[in-house]
Specification:
This protein has 324 residues and is α/β, with parallel strands linked by helices. 36% of the residues lie in helices and 20% in strands. It has a 7-stranded parallel sheet with strand order 5-6-7-8-9-10-11. Strand 9, helix 9 and strand 10 form a beta-alpha-beta unit. The protein starts with a helix and ends in a 7-residue tail after the last strand.
């Protein structure tokens, strides 16, 4: 039986941990739909007692990654936690001026290292050796989204879709998109107006409308951008809204688990799913593990960024030591 996400967060925080070294490795990864074409990326690597734990920083600019790499040795002092459990205190160590995505990268690396040093797995702590995870493929706003959907299908991408809304879509573009099957989420990012939502709502009655503009009405609304912590997630759930949870936005995987606990307590009709922030390294596999445990049937925006042969569900292993 799978333990609840709140119980898993508590168990992870109680793991003993020793950090002896800190390193950040940077690179750029070509990614379709990413502005500029190459996605800057950095991975923090924490070493201790013969093991290495990793976490991905999803900052969007080269300058942000350079600053993170320069500060990394001071963000988490070597020799931390040598005398006991770390108790989920990554936030207290990285400094008050650290960004949420920096805290999230360090916390993920701490979790990974702690699990490896304890020779244990998420399966051992939460239950379940693996899962089938529903994923969606997202793409940015474009004038003719239906044409892009057809291109994706021709390239072998079979996933359901999460599509950024372009407020400039005319009636023909909206109708053409509605004829394409598999649209699970329309992401407004707060753009457009209630009239646009009213025009799209009857065309996509089963789709989630994520972050629609103020004053808009649709039967299935989801929130993403406003969800900075578990309290904000709880408020959205109380309004009957679905929630898109992102560790970099919320400051780390443990806060995601606390938010998932709120969703569990909200009842069986509550919808939670995990989203991506253009992760190109371990951050994507780490998010998939949490989603596979606690929201495997949600429209998780965690499909592979590249390649053909996409599938609507992915097999996720949970029985390997470490996180991700």
């Amino acid at each position: 039986m799978t333990a609840g996400p709140g119980a898993l967060a508590a168990a992870l925080g109680e793991l003993p941990l020793c950090v002896e070294t800190v390193e950040v490795r940077r690179r750029a990864v070509p990614a379709s739909d990413y502005p500029g074409g190459a996605r800057p990326s950095s991975v923090v690597r924490l070493g201790g007692r013969g093991h290495v734990g990793t976490g991905e920083n999803v900052a969007f600019t080269d300058d942000e990654h350079a600053r993170f790499a320069a500060r990394a040795a001071n963000l988490l002092p070597a020799g931390a936690f040598t005398n006991g459990a770390w108790r989920g205190q990554a936030g207290a160590l990285v400094g008050a001026d650290a960004q949420g995505h920096e805290r999230a990268a360090l916390e993920a690396a701490l979790l990974d290292l702690a699990l490896r040093q304890a020779h244990t797995t998420l399966a051992a702590l939460a239950g379940g050796a693996g899962a089938s995870l529903r994923v969606v493929l997202s793409f940015a706003a474009r004038p003719d989204p239906a044409a892009h959907v057809r291109q994706l299908r021709a390239a072998g991408r079979a996933e359901e879709l999460k599509i950024d809304v372009d407020p400039a879509w005319d009636a023909a573009a909206r109708a053409a998109l509605a004829r394409e099957p598999g649209v699970a989420v329309l992401d407004f990012k707060g753009r457009g107006d209630p009239g646009l939502v009213a025009a799209l709502s009857p065309l996509f009655p089963e789709a989630l409308f994520e972050d629609p503009p103020p004053g808009a009405a649709h039967v299935r609304v989801a929130r993403d951008a406003p969800l900075g912590d578990a309290a904000a997630v709880g408020a959205a759930l109380a309004r009957g809204e679905a929630v898109n949870l992102k560790a970099p936005r919320m400051g780390g995987p443990l806060e995601v688990l606390r938010a998932l606990e709120r969703a569990r307590r909200a009842g069986p009709t509550a919808i939670a799913y995990l989203g991506g922030m253009f992760e190109v390294d371990v951050g994507r596999t780490q998010a998939r593990q949490l989603a596979a445990l606690f929201c495997p049937d949600g429209p998780n925006d965690l499909a592979p960024l590249q390649g053909a042969g996409g599938t609507r569900r992915l097999a996720v292993r949970l029985d390997t030591p470490g996180f991700g």
